Request: fold
Amino acid sequence: MGDHVHVRLSQGLSVSEEGDLIEHSRCRCGATFTKVFDAEEGEPEGPPRF
Reply:
C-alpha cells in the first residue's frame, strides 16, 4: 500500500473579525486545512506595475 499525499482543494475564503484572511481547504480523504494570513503583516498590494 502506498503513502497518502494530501491534495488541498480550495473550499473558499473568509475574513476574521480581526481582519485576517482565512483560506479553507480539504483533501478528498476528509482531512481539512485552514491557513490564516495576518492582516498586519506585509504591505497592501497595489495595482500591477508594467
Q: What stands out?
A: Residues 1-40 form one domain. The beta strands are 9-15, 21-26, 32-37.
